[in-house]
Amino acid sequence: STMRHLPYFCRGEVVKGFGRGSKELGIPTANFSEQVVESFPSDISTGIYYGWACVGNGDVHKMVLSIGWNPFYKNIKKSVETHIIHTFKEDFYGEILSIVITGYIRPEKNFDSLEALISAIQEDIEEAKRQLDLPEHLKLKEDNFFHLPEGKIVNNH
Ligand code: ADP
Ligand code: MG
């Protein structure tokens, strides 16, 4: 049920998250607003995905993304968070983030320690980098979506 939604195109404002300390772990995640999250297919699986991302009309970078349960809403709502595999000079809260999700890595997991969590995320990032170099994923980096005017989102085209 997840794969038929991919590639999934999405665009929306970056909002303040709930301070899980992602940045302190060296893995900041740009959170989408509740409204954007609500627009996701309701049957898309929670877990870790990868794809391409672009802030404003900046360059397109590799990303890993988590679709998880939002602790702020007592885990009844989903959250969608994008870690862009790029070092930015500044934060970009309030900017428009455009993403295309091209593949799925694994379901959500609980970890026994912070070290285990961090190393799992590092593995996810390495897996994303490898997958995104394959032609079927690489081609989406050049998709017109990243050059369309704001607001035009066409999925499964
Ligand atoms: P929050 O709980 O507010 O989401 P995070 O610790 O997850 O805080 O940090 C996310 C913020 O960090 C993003 O909203 C963005 O402004 C900034 N940021 C800087 N570099 C990146 C990056 N490579 N990927 C994602 N967000 C980044
Ligand atoms: Mg975050």
UniProtKB/TrEMBL annotation:
Swiss-Prot/TrEMBL cofactor(s): Zn(2+)
Domain Riboflavin kinase: 3-133
InterPro entries named in the record: Riboflavin_kinase, Riboflavin_kinase_bac/euk, Riboflavin_kinase_dom_sf
Keyword field: ATP-binding, Flavoprotein, FMN, Kinase, Metal-binding, Nucleotide-binding, Transferase, Zinc
GO biological process: FMN biosynthetic process; riboflavin biosynthetic process
Keyword Acetylation: no
SMART domains listed in its UniProt record: Flavokinase
This protein's pathway: Cofactor biosynthesis; FMN biosynthesis; FMN from riboflavin (ATP route): step 1/1
Gene Ontology MF, one: ATP binding
Highest taxon in the source lineage: Eukaryota
Coiled coil: none
SUPFAM superfamilies reported for this sequence: Riboflavin kinase-like
Transmembrane feature ranges: none
UniProt KW DNA damage keyword: no
GO cellular component: mitochondrion
Top-level EC class: transferase
Catalysis: reaction(s): riboflavin + ATP = FMN + ADP + H(+)
EC number from the UniProt entry: 2.7.1.26
Physiological role: Catalyzes the phosphorylation of riboflavin (vitamin B2) to form flavin-mononucleotide (FMN), hence rate-limiting enzyme in the synthesis of FAD. Essential for TNF-induced reactive oxygen species (ROS) production. Through its interaction with both TNFRSF1A and CYBA, physically and functionally couples TNFRSF1A to NADPH oxidase. TNF-activation of RFK may enhance the incorporation of FAD in NADPH oxidase, a critical step for the assembly and activation of NADPH oxidase.
Stated name of the protein: Riboflavin kinase
Organism annotation: Tricholaema leucomelas (pied barbet)
Lineage: Eukaryota, Metazoa, Chordata, Craniata, Vertebrata
